[in-house]
Design goal:
The complex is a heterodimer. By secondary structure, chain A is α/β, with parallel strands linked by helices. Chain A has helices at 30-44, 71-83, 104-112, 128-135, 153-167, 185-196, 226-230, 254-261, 265-268, 291-294, 301-339, and strands at residues 61-66, 87-92, 118-123, 141-147, 174-178, 201-205, 221-223, 235-238, 276-278. Chain A is built from eleven helices and nine strands. In chain A, the strands form two sheets. A five-stranded parallel beta sheet of chain A has the order 7-6-5-8-9. In chain A, strands 2-1-3-4 form a four-stranded parallel beta sheet, with helices on both faces. The longest helix of chain A has 39 residues, at 301-339. The two termini of chain A are 26 Å apart. By secondary structure, chain B is α/β, with parallel strands linked by helices. Chain B has two domains: 10-60 and 381-397 and 413-428, Urease, subunit C, domain 1 (Roll); 63-368, TIM Barrel (Alpha-Beta Barrel), CATH 3.20.20. Chain B is 30% helix and 24% strand. Chain B has helices at 82-91, 109-122, 145-150, 166-178, 190-193, 202-207, 215-231, 243-254, 265-269, 291-303, 318-321, 338-347, 353-358, 362-368, 394-397, and strands spanning 10-20, 25-34, 37-42, 51-54, 59-62, 64-69, 94-99, 126-132, 155-157, 183-185, 198-199, 211-212, 235-237, 259-264, 308-310, 383-393, 411-421, 424-428. In chain B, helix 7 runs parallel beside helix 8. The N and C termini of chain B lie close together (5 Å). The chains are: A alpha/beta, B alpha/beta.
Chain lengths: 347, 430
């Protein structure tokens, strides 16, 4: 009897298919991703109002649990939570508890005691938010803000929002993702989301040292040549190249990388005339992207940031509402059991 | 329940199906154990005054020989102790265990003595320590292999620890060959596997887990084989996990090199897909590889390219498994389920019964160069009586202190009724 192992997607949804945790875009239903985009659309205007708040998370406590430091992502989550009227607690774990030898599980137990409603988690280890979602009290929502090389689903969804905003939808779209695919959690989440939302083709472009083995398994076609990979694409997503890749013998130099894979106007010629250029940021000018492109008319990089807050508001409000409906359902079933005269306690 | 060290003068096991892969015997017979020795195997034996064990419908097998376990000693970072783990082994029909030198490490006679003393006091199974090949397993200076062998070690090995360079390795092998000590290899190139925690393949790519490529094993294995050939040392390769390694092993065996190999039971039942959902119980080294690798390993066991199946038992405390996948300690507890899982492979039509049982009895004994794993009259009895269709409900019957197994709550076929280790009853179920 081989053990049966729960598929990763089941953790994220309530029994009736609502979002409970947001850990990965992989295996989620298309309707749910569309819900996230539609909900985000309703929040985009909130930022433009005189009073930038809606009361959806009033009385809820959101804990930003960052085991890996990140000012930008954490700030957008913080802003998103505040605009939903939540109380926000920022914990920079990288510098505190675990460095004193406390295990992750002990840290979580302590935080649970603070009656948090949501953990926004960034962690250097792939799968950490899954572990946290499985270990915490069921009523605490977990949002993945980036785990190892695995997933960065809110970043991917804000990218999807941006694409839909400029392209009107996903049908027939060819999207190229360029650069350090191997280490990129963003790329992985983007590929899954694009496939679920019905893009025609997702392409991954990079040298073999920066492409994961069996990259096709993600649901993408793989190119090592920029001209071929960019041919007739509607969207180009450039990834950030970390400086330390040179030290681990993955690349010879930034210069050679830029010559081969850096996006400049010449290479952009291969894409469609109305192709847009995206980048999750922060950008390395002259390494993966030339200033002429980053600041050029096709670049939508800055708009991505604006949409990022709305998308995170959408995900947070949906997860809390999924959690609330889940705990109501639990309470109801508990009453039913008692009503039926069942003497057995829960668990 | 179990009562260890209960030393009965005479035991008559009646009407069991006696399966002894070493001799090819497979028939219904009685066995008589007198004063700890297996004295007779035959039809309708009579033994007045002997304790009678009715084994009709049950199988009588040689005690299992597990070629690879990781012991729990203080400081090893594992849970349980020698008593708890050998008791779990006895309940799984295992009588002999070869222990990796990575507890301690086993590079001094004091550690060897400690292991033998604790195993002797517990009395559940015979532990045969493998000595460290280099001091501290650091791969730089030779350990006192001859002295450690005199203290009771049956072989030497470096337990997967990196050996500094080919020169140190060559000299280690030459020195071991001087005393005709078999060398246990666990091939995995350290540079190619650095930071990795999963098979480099589609699942690790999707889950974003740093990979260990199959070639990390075969690169190291091919170098080891060349050095084995050059030094003439007896070599046993442990925990083979990939197809490419099998090609190398077949060629080496064809050339007549003195090499044997084993595979851990989990690599025969699970593949990389078991990691879905970041199941840390399936974090093992070498990693669970592709479905094709798994099929190839099964074929290699069937055709004898791989001689033995081991548990690679590694009991780990729950706190070391309760963390994000890459941060968990690798390893799976296995002695509780080794026999049941081997029987499952037979049920699944992957292995024939005699070969499967050979791979956990006589074959590992051959690999280790020890006298065990067969039903030989005139020698201390080591055997087990198995109810092949009885259910082992691991929710209740799990005995290892390590709960780190995907089968921890499974119900498996194959329940051991009686284990006799070197003439003493080491397990008796009620």
């Amino acid at each position: 009897m081989t053990p049966t192992l729960a598929p990763s997607s089941r953790v994220q949804l309530t029994d009736d298919g609502k979002l409970r945790h947001f850990l990965t875009t992989e295996h989620l239903p298309r309707s749910l991703l569309e819900d996230i985009l539609d909900t985000a659309a309703s929040f985009v205007d909130v930022g433009g109002r005189a009073i930038k708040k809606v009361p959806l998370l009033r009385g809820k406590t959101v804990v930003n649990l960052f085991f890996e430091s990140s000012t930008r992502t954490r700030s957008t989550f913080e802003l998103a939570a505040q605009r939903l009227s939540a109380d926000v607690l920022n914990l920079d774990i990288a510098k505190s508890a675990t460095s004193k030898g406390e295990t992750l599980l002990d840290t979580l137990r302590n935080l649970e005691a603070m009656a948090a409603d949501m953990f926004v988690v960034r962690h250097q280890d792939s799968g950490a938010p899954f572990f946290i979602a499985n270990e915490v009290t069921p009523s605490v929502a977990v949002i993945n803000a980036g785990d190892g090389r695995h997933a960065h689903p809110t970043q991917a969804m804000l990218d999807m929002y941006t694409i839909r905003h400029y392209k009107g939808g996903f049908a027939g779209l060819k999207v190229a993702i360029v650069g350090d695919i191997l280490h990129s959690r963003v790329a992985r989440s983007q590929v899954h989301a694009l496939n679920i939302l019905g893009a025609e083709e997702v392409r991954l472009i990079g040298p073999k040292t920066l492409l994961p083995v069996d990259a096709e398994a993600l649901g993408a076609t793989v190119f090592t040549d920029m001209a071929q990979g960019l041919k007739d694409v509607d969207v180009v997503i450039m990834l950030r190249l970390q400086k330390e890749r040179m030290d681990s013998a993955l690349l010879p130099s930034e210069g050679e990388f830029f010559r081969l894979y850096g996006l400049n106007n010449d290479k952009l010629q291969f894409a469609k005339d109305d192709a847009i250029v995206m980048h999750p940021g922060p950008i390395n000018r002259g390494v993966e992207i030339a200033s002429e492109v980053a600041d050029g008319p096709r670049s939508v990089i800055l708009n991505q940031v604006t949409f990022g807050i709305a998308v995170r508001m959408a995900v947070m409000s949906m997860a809390i509402s999924g959690q609330d409906s889940d705990s109501n359902a639990l309470a109801a079933s508990a009453e039913n059991m008692e009503g039926a005269g069942g003497a057995r306690g829960q668990r | 329940m179990a009562s260890a060290n209960r030393n009965r003068a005479h035991i008559l096991i009646r009407k069991g199906r006696v399966i002894d892969p070493a001799s090819g015997r497979d028939d219904v017979a009685d066995l008589l154990i007198e004063n700890g020795r297996l004295t007779r195997i035959g039809a309708s034996l009579d033994a007045p005054g002997a304790d009678i064990v009715e084994a009709e419908g049950h199988w009588v097998l040689p005690g299992l020989v597990d070629a690879c376990v990781h012991l729990s000693l203080p400081g090893s970072g594992r849970t349980g102790d020698i008593a708890s783990e050998t008791r779990a082994a006895a309940a799984g029909g295992i009588t002999h265990l070869a222990a990796q030198p990575d507890c301690g490490p086993v590079d001094s006679t004091a550690v060897v003595r400690l292991i033998r003393e604790q195993a002797g006091q517990a009395g559940f199974a015979r532990i045969m320590p493998i000595a460290a090949m280099t001091q501290g397993l650091l791969g730089e200076q030779l350990a006192e292999m001859s002295t450690l062998a005199r203290a009771g070690c049956i072989a030497v090995g470096n337990a997967g620890g990196k050996v500094a360079n080919a020169l140190v390795l060559k000299r280690s092998l030459e020195y071991a060959a001087t005393f005709d000590l078999p060398v246990m290899f666990r091939p995995q190139d350290s540079a190619l596997s650095v930071g990795g925690c999963a098979h480099e393949g589609p699942v690790a790519t999707r889950l974003g887990l740093p990979g260990i490529p199959a070639v990390a094993e075969s690169v190291d294995l091919s170098r080891d084989l060349l050095l084995v050939e050059a030094t003439g040392v007896r070599a046993h390769f442990q925990q083979i996990s990939s197809r490419d390694s099998l090609r190398l092993l077949r060629a080496a065996k064809r050339r007549g090199l003195p090499v044997t190999a084993d595979v851990s039971i989990q690599h025969l039942l699970l593949d990389e897909s078991a990691l879905e959902g970041f199941n840390s119980h399936c974090h093992v080294i070498p990693p669970l590889r592709s479905a094709e690798d798994r099929e190839a390993l099964l074929e290699a066991v069937a055709d004898g390219t791989i001689d033995a199946i081991c548990s690679q038992h590694t009991p780990i405390g729950s706190s070391s498994k309760a963390a994000p996948f890459p941060a968990t300690k690798p390893g799976m507890a296995g002695v509780d389920v080794l026999l049941s899982l081997v029987l499952q492979l037979v049920d699944d039509g992957k292995l024939d019964l005699l070969r499967a049982l050979d791979a956990v009895t006589a074959a590992p004994a051959r690999c280790l160069g020890i006298q065990a794993g067969q039903l030989e009259t005139g020698r201390p009895a080591s055997l087990c009586v198995l109810d092949p269709v009885g259910v082992k409900d691991l929710r209740e019957d799990w005995l290892s202190a390590g709960n780190n197994s995907p089968w921890r709550h499974a119900q498996l076929k194959g329940s051991v009724k009686l284990t006799v280790c070197q003439g003493k009853v080491s397990w008796l179920s009620d």
